[in-house]
Amino acid sequence: MALNKGIIEVSVVIPTLNEEHNIKKTIDGVSRQLCKVSHEIIVVDGYSNDRTVAIARENGATVLFDDIGKGSALIKGFMNARGAIIISMDADLSNRPIELRSLIASIRSGYDIAMGSRFIKGGRSDDISVIRRAGNKFFVFLVNAIFGSEYTDLCYGYRGFRKDILKDLGLKEMGFGIETEISIKAIKKQLKTVEVPSYEKRRAGGEPKLRTIHDGANILNTIIKNIWA
Ligand SMILES: Nc1nc2c(ncn2[C@@H]2O[C@H](COP(=O)(O)OP(=O)(O)OP(=O)(O)O)[C@@H](O)[C@H]2O)c(=O)[nH]1
Ligand SMILES: [Mg+2]
Question: Is 200 near ligand 1, meaning CB less than 6 Å away?
């Protein structure tokens, strides 16, 4: 997987929960895109009850386990990543591997965090429902109003990070609030962030894991908690 076992430039961290239909294609897409970059692929699995783990291993990924949620899975992956650049990416084939280029280029050029955005020029989503779009828009408005940011997207997990900054963020969100927590802490810590256009495709197969009301409440709670944090 890594071109040079000792030095890894990019770690791609992929949380999975029952993604047996999608994980091989996800890993293949990343490997193809990063064939000239020293990299590792870390799958952090939430104890899937299908063949996700076996398929991930067969295709060369390192597999870690986490039994809490998407956020805690990402945190575990971040903490175990060896690359100077870390990418977070979903396993449902919504995130296009070709966009790894712009995320990695942004970090190489000096940004601390590059956030995929579906709602800036060049971005798009074929996956987000009307309700979720409205919820995301409301949360973007709220975060920008409270924290003085200029984000166009919030609840979207295709991102790149300079590894050094992740340790200092003290991430705590165990579920789908993780992206919101990162976005707010990036502003509070005055990190150098950039949004890059992203095209979110429809989930290719398998079941959606996000529950709109439950996880929406979790995201709102994340925003409120971080006002005083
Ligand atoms: N380890 C772990 N991964 C999870 C958990 N929940 C979701 N994931 C993974 O996180 C990624 C994003 O989850 P999705 O279900 O695609 O959420 P979404 O993109 O907001 O919603 P849809 O694509 O519409 O289903 C996927 O790769 C999931 O398999 C969890 O509890 N634990
Ligand atoms: Mg998805």
Answer: no
